[in-house]
Structures are given as C-alpha cells and as structure tokens.
Amino acid sequence: MMNYYYFYYLVIIIISNSISVFGQNQEIRTYREVITKPVVFTPEFYRTVSHTELPIVKDELSITLKINLAGHAPYCITVFHKGILLMTFLKTSSVKLKLYFHLDKTKENCTPSLFLSPNESALIPSITITSIPWYNFSIANLVLNQWHHIAYTLSDPEKRLNIYIDGKWVGSLSIQNVQNQSIIFNDSPLYIGKHPLYDGINGQISNFRYYNYCLSHNEVLMDYLGDDPTKSIVDESPIRFFGGLGIGIFLCMAVFICSYYIKHSIRRPRGYRPI
C-alpha cells in the first residue's frame, strides 16, 4: 500500500506542476495605442498620458511607434519621456546650455525615455537604474522625410534594453552589475513630443503603442507589419495548456507502467515448511 501512496503523490505533483507552469506563462499581456493615425508634432507640441491610463507594468515594458522627421535640431530633443527630470536647457542662438536645479538627484527618473541627438537625430534610449539616474547609449541616425518603425523593449529580469528600427535589431544596453542594480520604473506621466524641460520633434508620429511586457523579436516584427502581438499569445494558450497537460499525463502513465512492471517482476521469497 505504501508504494501506491508514493505513486499517487507523484502523479499529483506532475499534474499540478504542469498546470502551474501554464498559469505562470499566462500573465495578462496587453497594450494601449495612444496614437493611431499620424499626428503632426512641432518642437512645442506634445501629448500627455497619465500613469493610470497606461497598462500596469511590473518589471517589463515595450514602446513601439512610427516616426517621420521633417528636420534635425541643433540640440537634444524628445520623442517620448516618462519620469522626473531635474535639469533644463537654456536656449541661446544655436545652442542650449544645460542648467541643473539644486534638487535631490536621487528622485530623477527617465524610464522609459527616447531622445534624438543634435544635428543627426541618432536614437538615444534612456533608462534609470540603481544609483545611475541616466543610463543610455546612442545608435542609428534617422533619415529625414522617411517613415521609420521604432521598437523600444525593456526587461529588468533580463537586465537589458533593446532597440529595433524597421523590424531589425540595431542595438542594446545591458546592466553590468546584475546582482546589485535594477531598472527603476516610475508612476509619472508619459510625454510624447515636447517635455516641460525639453523641446519635441519636428515631424509626425503614428501607431504609438505602450505594452506592459517585453516584446520578443518576432513580436516586434508583428507590430512592424501592423499585426497585434498579444493575439498570438491568446491563440497559443489552448495549445500550451493541453500540450503541458498532455506531457503531465504521459509522465503519469509512464510512472504507472513502470511501477506495475516492477511490482510483478519481483518474485516473492519462497516459504519453507518446517520438518
């Protein structure tokens, strides 16, 4: 009887693990499309979205958009920014001088943010990590008067920020001290275009989507082609469920057959009559 108890216990563990693994992979993945049709942006124009209007983010997010620049700027400009800035720029004839306020810099946050470099409009994706308010890099100049699809994907578990242009992976930024540093998110408003302390782009933006998870490369390609990456996850859910449950049942049957075979293959010791 004790062997049967062990067997039933093993069966329960296998099935429950199969179901729990399925459940862990089924976190609600969604997005909000803030801008759909092309909107003309000037350096002084912006759209603001409050934190409560965006999907809830745990430790990952992605932003995708299409952008068409009409001109470069002689200083750094904003595509989008979410967080708190404690610096500003003072305009002169052709340059902006950076001025710092005497405030607590530990409160500064720029996760997620995307800026364009002066004169060439190279992408400058930025995040805030532990002890570093501004953690960024520069990659890939944008061509004027041409539509580009940009994907900004961020994952704290993977400690990495990826950038895609027109469906191609063009660069990444990784956290080096993975044990002691994390990406710091915030509950500030999302600014598209001009930020109160920075000018915005001169051009157009469309199909601006804010996802609550980190898109894979295949999902970035789906977004680039105009599809909905979250639908592929929903469509695969029954397959994942029954696939995982089927593996669990198969393992249970294998354990049962092995137990039955072992039980009947071992001969009991022969008894002897007393003389």
TrEMBL record:
The keyword rRNA-binding does not apply. The chain crosses the membrane at residues 6-23, 241-262. GO terms for molecular function: carbohydrate binding. It comes from the Eukaryota. Keywords: Lectin, Membrane, Transmembrane, Transmembrane helix. This is Concanavalin A-like lectin/glucanase. It comes from Gigaspora margarita.
